[in-house]
Amino acid sequence: MYKILKKEELNPTVTMMDIYAPFVAKKAEPGQFIILRVDENGERIPLTIAGYDREKGSVKIIFQIVGATTKKLNMKNEGEYIEDFAGPLGVATHTDGLKKVCIVGGGVGCAIALPIAQKLKENGCEVTSIIGFRTKDLLILEDEFNSASEKLYVMTDDGSYGREGNVCVPLNEMFDAGEKFDMVITIGPLIMMKFVVEATKKTGIPCTVSMNPIMIDGTGMCGGCRLTLIEDGKRVTKFACVDGPDFNGYEVDFDEAMARGGMYREFERHAYEETCNLFAKEGK
Fold first, then answer.
1. Fold of 2-89
2. Does residue 50 or residue 66 have the better pLDDT?
3. Would you list which residues are annotated within the binding site for [2Fe-2S] cluster?
4. What cofactor does this protein call for (predicted)?
5. What is the CATH number of domain 93-210?
6. pLDDT tens digits, residue range 175-226?
7. Alpha carbon of 84 to those of 14, 32, 42, 126, 239: distances in Å?
8. Any idea where the domains of the chain sit in the sequence?
9. How far is 117 from 146, CA to CA, in rounded Å?
């Protein structure tokens, strides 16, 4: 059993938890993920590591309440326990040797981008961060990104905070001004990453994408995270949880990934509603 040391609501749909898991914290690196079960009858879900404290033995997770399991997880409080917390899994994000990097995060994907930005700064890298949200009410981690970045651009679709527009607006402005980076790293909704890749491609700057949004069971056995890459003109199948979650953005077939990502949406909606009804009956 793994104790919840801290719980914080970052916005109405996103929650942060610190979990006491010393063996995971000892080995965790940015870009990796864990697999958890809320209780002994729960399903296994992968969540990317949003931070860690090796001295305290804690691992930070940030999750959006979108389905049955995240609803159950959000019902847990500080001092309570979750059943399983296995990891770290996946390949850590490459950060060594990079001197100047642009991090582009969207929505809850910013929780995954933050430890990468922090690790890069720790390594002496100059970090420029762009974070985007639909509206001010969904903003998370601004202060943390500000501390980890030389420059920070905050974007909202409706202009309610920061600048109005999507994350590609300042990215294209920097490219048009001749700004150069060793790498662009982007994490967020698939459609956002697709357009960040397209914007970056014209510069020839390497672009890494995190394909954690398509992971389901985190082991590769379910096949839900199958990903098609175009390598040397050939279509190659990879698995986001086993081979990634980071990939060369120029090689990813985003259209296929987005089509597959919508397959379980209706099922997840029904599972979420059933869970909400169950908690309502129990008076929670």
1. Elongation Factor Tu (Ef-tu); domain 3 (2.40.30)
2. 50
3. 222, 225, 241
4. FAD; [2Fe-2S] cluster
5. 3.40.50.80
6. 999 999 999 999 999 999 999 999 999 999 999 999 875 555 555 555 566 7
7. 21, 17, 10, 37, 23
8. 2-89, 93-210
9. 10
